[in-house]
């Protein structure tokens, strides 16, 4: 037995403390997999002591957990989750990860093929190995939204196929668009309520449609950024809500006296949407914007009527081939290229979208690193700071950013690629006319002891 595992924590070095944390977490994950294996066998045998009417009631009593938690563990133990079982038994994901994945897949549409089901599980398990359960849950929610769209709206659906005509509207009897949808497109629902208080303050509230909300957000974000600190000990004293209030005041002031718009990273508000021509031609398909919202192709075309559109030349593997030129700091074109290539912060497990990131020189400018796409990576503020003040390093391999952890976290220092921004896997058989296909039979989980 290692001395590290027997010594009291106060006798360990800083490095050994981290090593014990990682080891004990892995052991805890493996132990949970062993417990689920036991629950599965208990449920299969029906081996309940006299006086208990259900396995869940028995587990809640002897494990001192709630009945809801007991039922959740039974669902995890008896579900069809071979990839989750494998990762959990190897100690690579936690009990919370397993719970999120099991809950999501239990509600998966019945029309999914076994291949769809496996791809979805693999997507979430891969992300779980590098991200916390909250990020995995958001990815699962994103996938659910993608699945829950009307079958005619899912890429690959064999339904309607309209030409690229912004004025084309389906017939009144078409199932793909109702009268209420056409009315919403012509006159979106927006509300704004305001009043003057006795103290002379202007109070307001309301809500707007998605397209207007996206524009407002794009205007607020750059103007609400914290002011640079004059010294390390004097950060911006304003709260986030105060900064957004000041940003709104600036927008109103600009609108009152000039047609100029606020700048975001040096240019007017820009939203990046990656879409192929085939999808843009069809009103029956959907696209995912950089904020992970799902838009119809028709809705996207409405946005593009008033937007600045930048075409990008993409290679067969999706890498940006021609967009942007080198400079001391990243140009606007390079920022758009990074948004397309990186899709957001590149740190493993981070799901911050492009608007929350800044370009980072992989080889620092002061050390001779050029400002071109092959030497830039998108990082959010938190992970940009981590990169400068820890042992993490960045490399670019096959047009994908990989992070190399410090040896204290991984002695082998295996490069990690972020999968939090990967698009939802396209279902193979999304059509209401297809009969539901049977799910694969639950496979016995791998023995946790073998890990």
Write up what this structure looks like.
Helices cover 40% and strands 10% of the residues. It is built from 15 helices and twelve strands. Helix 2 packs across helix 4 (67-78). It is an alpha+beta fold and 451 residues long. Among the domains are: 3-153, no CATH class; 319-425, no CATH class. It is globular, with a radius of gyration of 26 Å. This is DUF222 domain-containing protein. Residues 333-385 form the HNH nuclease domain. Residues 148-187, 410-451 are annotated as: Disordered. Residues 178-187 have a biased composition (Basic and acidic residues).
Key attributes of the depicted protein:
451 residues, 12 strands, alpha+beta, two-stranded antiparallel sheet, HNH, endonuclease activity
Question: What's the quick description here?
Answer:
With 451 residues, this protein is of the alpha+beta class.
